Amino acid sequence: MPHSSAKEDTDAQTSIPHWYDPSSTGVTITDGDGSRVVDDEGTEYLDFVSQLYCVNAGHGNRAIVNAMIEQLERVQYVSSAKRTPARAELSDDLVAVAPDSLSNVMFSVSGSEANELAVTIARDYADAPKVLSRWRSYHGSTYGAGSMTGDPATRGPLEAHASTTGAVKFLPPMTYGSPFDAETPEELAAAAADHLEFVIRNEGPETIAAILTEPIAGTSGAYTAPPGYFERVRDLCDEYEILLIVDEVITGFGRCGDWFGIQTEGVEPDLLTFAKGVTSAYAPLAGVMMRPEIAERVRSGGFDIGQTFGGHPVSCAAGVAALAEYDDGLIENVRATEGAFADRLSALEREHDVVADVRGRGFLHAVEFADPTTGEPFHDPRVDEGHNPVKDVIGEASNRGVLVGGGRPTTQVILAPPLCTTADEIDTAV
Ligand code: PLP
Q: According to the UniProt entry, which residue ranges have a biased composition of type Polar residues (predicted)?
């Protein structure tokens, strides 16, 4: 990889530009192959953030491209209210790999919309207005999904616009920087679950439709839950008759070593939302999976309004092909390589006294930076102004040919390469 002429990824250092900014000096990506992308000057980068945690099968996957072309040549679009083979096939494939509790799929377009759809369905089914979600979570940028989001960086700009009606936050079981006084993972799981029960009881269980949570906090910092935590959450949901919605927008499709992150926890959700990796980002697609009795309610008079591009046939064709790729060795590659990835990152914590914590699972990891003498982050993550040395790390990684993600809060760097990434590539990137 030629690094000398690589550019600093200034876009990744500031906020991600979701509009075209002609004055931007960041990397302009023109090509991609496997775990690598190439910029307009021919410089190659290891894509250790899968763009936006979504190119799970890697760039330039011929099988997915061919499936999309084939669909385009047959019929490019079929109404989301009608049947078409790609949509049916993808639904069957999703149900086959999802937790056993989930039997039905409703398609949408983006992760934000899928979360809003899941919340709407849950509120209707439970006939209750509130949804509990975690501080340090990201569920999307639209009106409703933004209300559920609880990360300090996104919250600021969204707060004035998001609806707060029915959106209640609780504290997550963070293994680093925890607000709970716990010595062991077991104590942390118990303290965080007790806190959740306190919130449920004080809000009034009959007013709560659902708990919405990522199985592993994605952009908030790759926090895995301590053992036993999700079992307690499931028990609380059963005891107080609250639906459990898992947001698998990042953690789904092999990213964390199983088809879905919640499967590693051995817990069955009532609803599950997905997006990103379902098509490996070859086309936009998202959706909600749900228990049969919830699907029945949707059919028999609940919320059953589709979106024009929900389940677009070309996206569904990409999804069928992407799932086949995950099944055909990619998830296996994550399982075979995740140990080496974690070990390699753990060495950073031992070798560099600015690294305070490394954490994650599968191909989703965070490296947390803090002042070794005080344990304090190098800048105030709520007021993200002035000099932030973590952004220097992101820029310098890009200079050296590795694209990484900036977490929220911006005290950390997130590593989430495509699932086809090899142990050698991990070694180079780390
Ligand atoms: N949920 C999670 C966990 C996410 O990480 C994201 C996006 O990063 C979303 C939802 C929103 O998805 P989208 O950007 O497709 O609306």
A: 12-28
Mean local confidence (pLDDT), 171-200: 96
**Closest ligand 1 atom to the C-alpha of 248?**
3
Confidence of residue 407 (pLDDT cuts 50, 70, 90): confident
Cβ of 111 less than 6 Å from ligand 1? yes
pLDDT at 234 over 60: yes
Residue 241: φ, ψ to 5°? 55, 55
Residue range(s) of every CATH 3.40.640.10 domain in the chain: 62-325
> What's the ipTM?
0.99
Q: Which of 53, 147, 248, 250 to mutate to test the pocket of ligand 1 (most atoms within 8 A of CB)?
A: 250
Task: For the domain made up of 62-325, give the CATH fold.
Answer: Aspartate Aminotransferase; domain 2 (3.40.640)
Interval 80-133: pLDDT, tens? 999 999 999 999 999 999 999 999 999 999 999 999 999 999 999 999 999 999
Q: Check if the beta carbon of residue 366 is closer than 8 Å to that of residue 412.
A: yes
Ligand 1: residue whose CA is nearest its atom 1: 139
Does 139 contact ligand 1 (Cβ within 6 A)?
A: yes
Tens digits of per-residue pLDDT, 7-49? 666 555 444 445 565 566 678 999 999 999 999 999 999 999 9
Please report, rounded to a whole number, the percentage of residues in the chain having pLDDT higher than 90.
79
Tokens of 121: 């369905």
CATH number of 10-60+332-429: 3.90.1150.10
